[in-house]
Amino acid sequence: MRVLISAFAIGLPLVSGLAFTGAVGFGSFATGGTEAYVVTSLADSGTGTLRDATSVSGRNITFSVPGYIVLESPISLSSDTTINGQTAPSPGIGVMGREISASSKSNIIIRNLRMRQGSMETDDTKSAFNMGDATNIILDHCSIEYGVYDSVDAVGAVNVTVSNSIIAFPIGQQFGAHLETGPATWYRNLWVSAHNRQPLTKANTQYINNVVYNYQAAYTVADTSGDFSHDLIGNYFITGPSTTSASDAYYQIDDNQSAYASGNLLDSNKNGVLDGSAANTIGSAKVLSSPWNSGSAAIASLTAQQAYTTVLAGVGASPRDSVDAYVISIVESLGTEGAIIGSQADTGLANDGYGTL
After folding, report:
1. Assuming Cys at both sites, which of 2, 20, 324, 330 could form a disulfide with 316, CB separation 3.0 to 4.6 Å?
2. What is the C-alpha end-to-end distance of the chain, expressed in Å?
3. The whole model's pTM is what?
4. Which active-site residues does the annotation give?
5. Which CATH number fits domain 3-345: 3.10.20.30, 3.40.50.1220, 2.160.20.10, 3.40.50.2300?
């Protein structure tokens, strides 16, 4: 049954200022919800389910059950929603099969949620997570795998942060993330085995302490008349078996763009050893002598080498499950393993590639 209680009663602080302690970037002031709702069922719909929980704005959602929620249709979130996946008992909570959408909504906080769309999706125009035309959104410590159209679709999104998250093994278009409008912050994320869009960003952007592995194209702007500014600091790009041109770590970045790049490394030799060299020439972008955003230097607290260690140790939803463990193991091969896949089943993991919770 559905349970509604006071947020104070379960020890969850009401949001004041930052979305949560440690939140950074343009989405960090998302306010989320305050009316506590406990998800008590893994069913697709009905009382006590995630679908019911997100059907009304203003809710702060926790979980008393662990496991996968198999979606029969997409879930459309309401504005002013907080999803606290970290409250689920071990081994954690996830959704599989269909899209989670925050399209045209505002003030949403999602933490420690696994979103795994995969080949169960019946609509190839849907993404694992869609926040098109949304405002004030933060995803933190999420695990987003097997996206069909994009892993993350954010065209028209304003004030977005994606932090400490895994974006890996997209199928379908095999794209990581597509964001337009912005501004946006991508912070300490792990991007693995995508054809392109890690991310595609037509926006003023902070891209700080990310790790990108086995890319065909990584940080991308693509053909655009827009003149955007980009802070790229302390990122590590690592080629893998699917990488055909190491220089496509920065892809289709023309002289309409302005970039501040510092401390980025590229490991291009696929030799099983982390031994990258400096990679701070960002296409033909205008070179900025200092970050375009005054907050970028403050959150860029790690070198690229430190980012590799920190990201692999703590990225994604907790506790780490078999899918995320597989992602990490591929990256740790440092160029010798990995593939861009067409189905989650290609991983060889249990439950047709979705893994079990």
Report:
1. 324
2. 22
3. 0.95
4. 197
5. 2.160.20.10
